[in-house]
Input
Amino acid sequence: VKNQLRVLRAERGWSQAELAERLGVSRQTVNAIETDRYDPSLPLAFGIARAFGKLIEEVFEPKGLHRVGQ
Amino acid sequence: MAQIEFGICGPSGIRPRKESGPDLILMGIGSAIFILAFSGLKLALRAPESSLTFPLGLASLAGLALAAWSVYRMWRREDDAALMQAGMLGFLFFLGLHERAPKGSPLALFAALLPLAPAALFAWSTVRLARQADELQRRIAQEGLAFGFVVSLFAALTGTALEAAGLPRFNWAWMAAVLVLACGAGIVLANRRYR
Output
């Protein structure tokens, strides 16, 4: 999935380490998600969206997949 | 959350806390004293009525106590990374101790069972670190272990085939080292992928 993590983080002026601290994961995990090397689990994706005060689909969107019903 | 990286067959590659550095050195010194004194003790026991038996036995106990005390300090500090390294080092230090001890003697039995203590410490601290790991770190460990398992499996099968083809007999105790190295390599590779 594609994500807006880097943009949202930059808007708030948070470092990767700061976001990692808020999410309770390692900085490596935040970096891997940001650089599209790793797709987070659903609970972590919800946690990320909640950390930015957004809906999950505002942070993540499927890449190369057709949405169900389309 | 603690920054954990994965190394050899588990969340190692992590750095112990600074305060545990001296304790790891003390543990090494204690183990070295124990190994030297214990080796001397085994030789002394072969010579009937050797006057060195008691002082060497005492020195062995002192070395072991020093190593145990340093491990206790790390345990009090809850430094699982340091405990894991201490466990691995202790296991490697004590592994060959049973050799040359009079067979069937309590000393040989003690020396053969001694590596189990650091092995248990290693396993316990590894599990604790794995529990602290997040989902990506667990995936890295999983990929590394899968790689290590497959490599070790094929290494074992190839070894068997080579033996059957007439090559000298292979010491299968080395398979443990192959497994550890293959897991380590797998985890390093997986780590690079997600860096």
About this structure: Residues 1-13 of chain B have pLDDT under 50 and may be disordered.
